[in-house]
Structure formats: C-alpha cells, structure tokens
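yo

u said u wanted the structure for the complex thing, so here. seqs first:
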Amino acid sequence: MPSFKPEKKFMLLAIAKAREGISKGQAPFGACIVRKGKAVACEHNMVWKSMDITAHAEIVALRRACKKLKKIDLPDCAIYSTLEPCPMCFSAIHWARIPFIIYGASIADAKRGGFNELEISNEKMKKSGRLRVRLAKGFMKKDCVSLFKEWGARKGKKAY
Amino acid sequence: MPSFKPEKKFMLLAIAKAREGISKGQAPFGACIVRKGKAVACEHNMVWKSMDITAHAEIVALRRACKKLKKIDLPDCAIYSTLEPCPMCFSAIHWARIPFIIYGASIADAKRGGFNELEISNEKMKKSGRLRVRLAKGFMKKDCVSLFKEWGARKGKKAY
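structre next:
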C-alpha cells in the first residue's frame, strides 16, 4: 500500500462543503474524494434536499467520483470526511476500494452535536471485516467539531 | 414492535427484479420494500448501469421509497432482499428506521456465488449497534441462491 500523508487543504474543502450544506438547511457534514493530489468530488450531506436517507456526504461524493472517473473502483483515491463515516459510508468506501479514510469529528462528537448515530466505529468495522483500510482519525478535529455549533445556531435546523 | 410474518409474494417480487437485473447485465440481487401490505419499491442492483458503487438493490429501493413516500423515515415498512444486506445496506435500512429485514441467500452464499463480500453478518451488525431490528434469515433461500446460477450461466457477466 502506498504511503499517505493527510493534507489540510482537502479537509478544508470538505469543511467548506459542510458549511455550504449548513447554509442550505442540510446536516453539517462534508466529504472530499482526492486522487493523485487533486480533489475529484467534494459534497455535503443532501438527505433533506434529495429526500434520500442514503445521501450522506460520503455517499454523494462516491457517486459523483464514480460518474466522473467512469469506474466503480477507486483504489488510487483517499476520502476526507468532516465526520467519522457511519457504517453505511464506511462500507461504501470499502466497496469502492478506497484505501485511505481521513476524518475529523468522531461518531461520539456527532452524538454530542445532536445527531442520532449508529455507534459502530470505523475501527470496529475494520476489525470485524478484517480490512486493511488506513484510518487517520481526528484530523483537524477542532474545525470539524465546530461545524456542529454553526449548525446548532441556525434557525429551522433539522437533525435526523 | 408490531408482529410480523414474511410473505412469499414479496420475496417473489424481489426475485423477479433480480432476474430482470440479470437479463440487463446487472448483479443478481433484488429488494422489495413493503408498506401496509403493498410493495412500495422493488429494485435490482444497478451498480453497472448507473456506474455507482453504492447502487445495491436495497439502496436503490430505499431511495425510491423515500422519494415516493416523501419522507426519510420508514418505520412502517419491511424490506425483502434476495441476499443478506451488506453492512452498507444494513446501515442504510437502519437509518431509514425499517424494523424488519427478510432475506434469502446469506453473505456466505454470495461468496460461493462469485462475489467479493464484506463478511460482516446482519446479526453481527445488529449486536455491534445494539439494534432492535428483526431479521428473518434464509426466507425462500433456495430460490434466492438459484439466482447465482442463472447469473453465472450468462455470458459477459461482471462480478465486482
């Protein structure tokens, strides 16, 4: 597996997307898929906008990256997410063969932030599935956690 | 939680959809979401057709059901799947608050059928997440497993 060093600029893109989502009434999560030093797909959660319970930021970004690259396997990509991917997103990332996951806030942070979470950590999923995916946890955590406050301060916000 | 009895007619719809998928070059999986005795969304795997790694039958059915019912919570629904939902689909079903999962073939059957599976069972996901979802396993298993053979006999089939 190639070496990998998380880069702030890509998490900043994911954070900017999350913020864009907040401004549009969406849940405060963003994700960015990167390939060969370039952002391929940066998306925010679209559950409310699309009325689609599966439209987490990571899933939306995966769909876009597959379409853009015209393939379903993305072994040369990494995914940055402002929040630890939920088990749905973690598994989708596995299906796409992305070997690197970089995240900021943890599932526990999301729970404290007002979100009903499925409490199975990426570490646990990795162990259960005997996977080799590499996890960079808590990357720019403070900035990612602050998104919950921004979202919380917004009128008419909707958790789920 | 209300009582629940799996019905053959809905698994037959899921099987028919899987078969339709096979005929269109898709992976041999189908799912059917049922609400108050009526099928709401029956779909087959669309990974190749949509070039979308997340387009498993259950995910496609969830998206359609959400759109059709104009809501993201489906607590009065059940989902029938020809194959034990993978952890991505299991988690998506959890997010949609569907309390009943009925499946035919198991993850082990899919592996034998030629599919690269993420081997975390629904039972294990349920236990890890301390969830109350009810699972009906191996329902019409023989019919569901036979789909792998039909798919296997097809020229130009593509696993992933």
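The longest helix of chain B spans residues 8-23. Helices of chain B lie at 8-23, 47-50, 57-69, 87-95, 107-112, 122-128, 141-152.
cya
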